[in-house]
Amino acid sequence: MTPSQPGNPRVRLGDLGVPSGMFARGTLNAITDVPGIRIGHASLHDDGLNTGVTAIVPDALDGRRRSLPAGLSVGNGYGKLVGATQLQELGALETPILLTSTLSVFRVADAFLGHLLATPAHAETTTLNPVVGETNDGFLSDIRRRAVGAAQVDHALRSAATGPVAEGCVGAGAGTVALGYKGGIGTASRVLHVGGTRRTVGAIVQTNFSGTLRIAGVPLPAEELLAQDPAAPVGNSCMIVVATDAAVDGRQLGRVANRAVFAMRGVGADYAQGSGDYAIAFSVHDPADGGPVAEEALSPLFAATMDAVEEALVNSVLTAQTTEGPEGRIAHAIPIDVVRTRLAAAGVI
Amino acid sequence: MTPSQPGNPRVRLGDLGVPSGMFARGTLNAITDVPGIRIGHASLHDDGLNTGVTAIVPDALDGRRRSLPAGLSVGNGYGKLVGATQLQELGALETPILLTSTLSVFRVADAFLGHLLATPAHAETTTLNPVVGETNDGFLSDIRRRAVGAAQVDHALRSAATGPVAEGCVGAGAGTVALGYKGGIGTASRVLHVGGTRRTVGAIVQTNFSGTLRIAGVPLPAEELLAQDPAAPVGNSCMIVVATDAAVDGRQLGRVANRAVFAMRGVGADYAQGSGDYAIAFSVHDPADGGPVAEEALSPLFAATMDAVEEALVNSVLTAQTTEGPEGRIAHAIPIDVVRTRLAAAGVI
Amino acid sequence: MTPSQPGNPRVRLGDLGVPSGMFARGTLNAITDVPGIRIGHASLHDDGLNTGVTAIVPDALDGRRRSLPAGLSVGNGYGKLVGATQLQELGALETPILLTSTLSVFRVADAFLGHLLATPAHAETTTLNPVVGETNDGFLSDIRRRAVGAAQVDHALRSAATGPVAEGCVGAGAGTVALGYKGGIGTASRVLHVGGTRRTVGAIVQTNFSGTLRIAGVPLPAEELLAQDPAAPVGNSCMIVVATDAAVDGRQLGRVANRAVFAMRGVGADYAQGSGDYAIAFSVHDPADGGPVAEEALSPLFAATMDAVEEALVNSVLTAQTTEGPEGRIAHAIPIDVVRTRLAAAGVI
Amino acid sequence: MTPSQPGNPRVRLGDLGVPSGMFARGTLNAITDVPGIRIGHASLHDDGLNTGVTAIVPDALDGRRRSLPAGLSVGNGYGKLVGATQLQELGALETPILLTSTLSVFRVADAFLGHLLATPAHAETTTLNPVVGETNDGFLSDIRRRAVGAAQVDHALRSAATGPVAEGCVGAGAGTVALGYKGGIGTASRVLHVGGTRRTVGAIVQTNFSGTLRIAGVPLPAEELLAQDPAAPVGNSCMIVVATDAAVDGRQLGRVANRAVFAMRGVGADYAQGSGDYAIAFSVHDPADGGPVAEEALSPLFAATMDAVEEALVNSVLTAQTTEGPEGRIAHAIPIDVVRTRLAAAGVI
Q1: Which of C263, D77, D270, D317 gives C306 a disulfide partner, CB atoms 3.0 to 4.6 angstroms apart?
Q2: Is residue C343 part of a domain?
Q3: How far apart are CA C60 and CA B36, in angstroms?
Q4: Domain containing B198 — which CATH number?
Q5: What is the reported pTM?
Q6: What is d(CA A81, CA B85) in angstroms, rounded to the nearest whole number?
Q7: Which residues of B touch C271 (CB under 8 A)?
Q8: Do C90 and A295 touch (CB under 8 A)?
């Protein structure tokens, strides 16, 4: 799924041989391992633009159910997340989730709303709470053009598919930078037991934050690994979306979402004051089928969530390619060979 | 300022002779009594549409200052308020505040952002947190047309003025209903001393909520006062904006905003589960000029805020005229003569 | 249940003939109408002391269940509520709730914990989250003596009973003042349908806040009704506990608790900055028996909660007797005859 | 400062030669590097008991000032933190902070209150918000005896001193376990510039949480490093206190406190569901002397806070000694020699 670049073939963390930790990776090691989750991207790469939309689509909202249990964690609220207060009040997600570029977030939300209102499920709808996250891709994209709109929204939603997920410089990650490197979209998953039932938790992230990368604890500072200046995001941020099929309710998913934010520290985030760091967690489990699980059953879900989020964050960097933006600004891909060498030296692989 | 209707001249609460309570009303008894606050409206009344935009514009944000101290209270988060998390994280308001119709909120936010980015103050801006509130005017307006856009946003912003404020069926209040009657926009203000300094607090509201109206404690149920069926809002809500020139910081303004939400109960709100009840409070006082005041100085500000909000809520109903929406739905103006009679009988006037 | 005072027989709101509003009162019009709720008081009235403890005891926690779904609303956090963060995190109440005097709250919590650890249900317990609220009865009691302790805690818990509930100057209300009058403990209940099932919601309050009393909207200012100076609470506050048997979860009960705080405005609270205004709502319904109800079913529960809380607040004042504290400070009972006259004049009764 | 153990001399992270990162350590590398901060401990080690109290005392509250700006982060609210809601509402700390054992927290709070009321500064005080945190030392101490009381509180407060801080098995850390090892009290500090002024930030922690230890990214799992079974805390938790002399207000300190919780992930915390993970941050800077700093100045303070917290967490483990509790339960000290070997192998030292 990952586009290649001469001399610098992109990989995922698992490809490097880094073990998954306490829980096994899912089949695809992607959020699409969670039943009924589809991912779609629309990317805009042209003169001065590296931007796009990524759609996380739970099939259950395609007419069958009006909402899914959901929780939100606002790690650092310096962002323009659309849909926050209603999601928290009701503990519910009413629509797919879109990720995009900061200054396009409202036109994306408006186009998204138009798209949804045109579907049979919403033929009579007069109120709806679309959820759209963003990070600022202004380092690599002419953000003031606000180029993302209805065409990209429609494409991302219509092309959303199960199966492997494109990562790196794609969709909402086309123009983001993370930890001094080119960042982007990453995903990962874990399989675990929650309250005695086998479940999956998956994460997808849009990385655009500062700090010093660590993989499995091994520091990989951009200042050292790159021959050139590290990329500095304009208004750094991170959007994290976690999906599971565990039988958890909205309040419990708020607790899951908190852990997703905490996991950023595991890969070296510095949670700078201008960063919009948010996690949304939702479950595709239908409460009508039982639940929620006892609170005591949540610790493994918390642990697996953090592992999946950390791997998704790392994957976003490992799979991203060197990208040039306006005015000669460049975010470099992390050099995979150096990563491999350092991880081997540290005994991680 | 209030358009008239044959046989039912609209009034404000003060016109009825209801005293102001512990604090005096400001000169205009409007949020524009707070120095540097301008209000603008754009209204859409045509075939099946009664909707619009209302703009609350603090002059201080016209280039001189980057943000004002601000706080948010989410009384009931069933709404689509744009800008919530960043306002709370930073305790700051970066832009004017717009109010509009639920399904238009994102296109209004997008147009607003475009408007702001085109101003000299934002010539280089790559991140900005516009604040746009909404209530659902779908009872009196074809909300799915999402008719409010850039033209209305520009008009509301450009026409924003000091002086008396149009109330009732205007701007974002064109199509809202409250407490069984036609609601809309209302405003009021109070003058007080905060920490020994004479200050003003003003409120402006967009009313669209259910319950049983009380004025000065006197119940005025729509079921009794109207010959016809009371209006039932589609997704009821209330947006409250409070401005002051008191020397308060973001955290303290959060406390002010809480009181603004509490005040809704004073006029009979029932805070129904589907209601998006929010208050935003901001101060035009420049922290560089001193402050914040000691916490002990806040109680009078809290009391004056509640009085101003309650009067603004009542004014929105008293000044609104009977309005017909799609499919013959009608929201009736409260009959002023009956109000007057009942208030007199209760000894309030 | 109410102790009498010569020439000023105490009454409850219903005794005055004020109708209950949209929902019927429960049999006892008390929180004990909710199945399995018992109330106990321990009062200390002696030289300079008017203080005590009130216990709200859900039978379900006597060994059968480890916790009940619960929510908390912090209307104004100027208080020392014990147990707040864990109740919110887990949406659960693990113990009965005690109310007491500010400076005694920790020794009451400690004694309470000792009491609980000595019960068979907690023979092995090594962590437990007791919930103890407080208001400041320092106007009528020598609060610095911190006179409430294990003896009062044990008495309140052991004497807790179903049936009618003593109100006014009793338990945690022995020394509190409200709205210029002697306040204290009050209770009320409503019967309603939630999601098609007949349910009860009950409230019990400890009133100690400032403002101007309104009953059914009719203003009854202490400055007018009393020949003497109104009482001024030292650090005013209000603790509200709401119980129901509706099938609601912790998040939904947080929404219920919010409404309980909002209801304070309905009786004239001014939410002064130094007030600790909290509401805790819990359900005795066992989630194992189904639920939670759909969000849409909550509006009647919200409305009934506000009605019950408002009536409980009023009852705390109507049933309280003139009380003298240290240094000649006196809080006067509201004169019932004047209340009756004014309510009749306003057509309320 | 650290008591020694034959064959296992305890060290601090700096002693091992691990560099401090972006910011220099303070002179003592302790929270006492922040001007006017004193630390005191009272420890109880006897038959079946390993428990105690740790006091963090800002001199400024000894009569000169009534409160300090403060913020709270509730990472996971499964704890009994006393003083939470008022600290958040007012953004203020009114008293020193005590840390202790879960089931003793209320009697410690009560004794603390008694201690404070007996001081001249509180001769007239009738309301006060003591702040007392706790973690559960029940693995190594007979927690149900609730052995910590007035004697320990007085000792900790009276012995509080500037200068080096005792770490490890002392005070509130006497009986806690962390990351499979014996944990306890740890401290560290960093020197930085905030808004152009040289400032210090210091942290002190009480560690009692689960997870897999990482030092400078190097995994040091108790399962590998110990010949025996790792210790399992009963109800794991972490209390973090951050002090600074930077000119920040309560809201900004809430943002600082959030980062302190995030930092736990940097050393391998798993934030288990039963963990009470809290951070309190306060400033000794007097707002009367100017401030707060601009929001943009906060990122270095955030970064330095996370570094100090991570090092304090690690120090709590490195300095703690093997401790035996009731029923033969043992928490083993981390073997320093193995730590040294592994850090050297990884190139960290």
Answers
A1: C263
A2: no
A3: 58
A4: 3.60.70.12
A5: 0.97
A6: 7
A7: 258-259, 262, 302, 306
A8: yes
